[in-house]
């Protein structure tokens, strides 16, 4: 049997309270709404293990078209846990990071959507300026502005 190989990272999923609020926030970052629909029924519940479910999803796509963010608002069953205020050193999936071209300008626009910098904007060597923010609904988002042509991956490869 031929070993399966990874083809791409298709999407990251985030459950939100308000799909409209989350869509607006991620559009401000630069993602585009690719589609929005309700997914429901027993077949969907077999995938998630939740049984008969109803969830409205919105698929957002990055400008390069390679990565997607799936936003989900559960209609039923209702959400049972809320990890949005967990600190960054908690176990599990906690944040998603985007590379942007003008961090300060984006932060000023995102502030109008209620985003707040978690700690402070810092500079990592001459490679990135970066920060974490609490965005729409308290979601933890990383933002990084690349300063030069060298990336953190380049440094790791040269060590």
Number of helices: 4
What is the SS-derived class? alpha+beta
User: CATH superfamily of the largest domain, called what?
Assistant: 2,3-Dihydroxybiphenyl 1,2-Dioxygenase, domain 1
Residues in helix, %: 10-25%
N-to-C span: 36 Å
Order of helices and strands: EHEHEEEHEEEEH
Largest sheet: 5 strands, mixed
Uncertain regions spanning at least 5 consecutive residues = none
Topology:
Layout: E1 11-15, H1 19-29, E2 32-41, H2 42-48, E3 53-61, E4 68-76, E5 95-100, H3 103-111, E6 116-117, E7 122-124, E8 128-134, E9 140-146, H4 152-158
Parallel strand pairs: 1-4, 5-9
Antiparallel strand pairs: 2-3, 3-4, 6-8, 7-8, 8-9
Protein name: VOC family protein
Domain VOC: 8-146
Pfam families: Glyoxalase_4 (PF13669)
Description:
This protein is an alpha+beta fold. The protein has 2 domains: 8-81, 2,3-Dihydroxybiphenyl 1,2-Dioxygenase, domain 1; 82-159, 2,3-Dihydroxybiphenyl 1,2-Dioxygenase, domain 1 (Roll), CATH 3.10.180. The chain has 4 helices and 9 strands, in the order E-H-E-H-E-E-E-H-E-E-E-E-H. It has helices at residues 19-29, 42-48, 103-111, 152-158, and strands spanning 11-15, 32-41, 53-61, 68-76, 95-100, 116-117, 122-124, 128-134, 140-146. Strands 5, 6, 7, 8 and 9 form a 5-stranded mixed sheet that branches. It has a 4-stranded mixed sheet with strand order 1-4-3-2. The N and C termini lie far apart (36 Å). 13% of the residues are buried. The mean pLDDT is 89. It comes from Leptospira idonii. It holds the Pfam family Glyoxalase_4. Residues 8-146 form the VOC domain. This is VOC family protein.
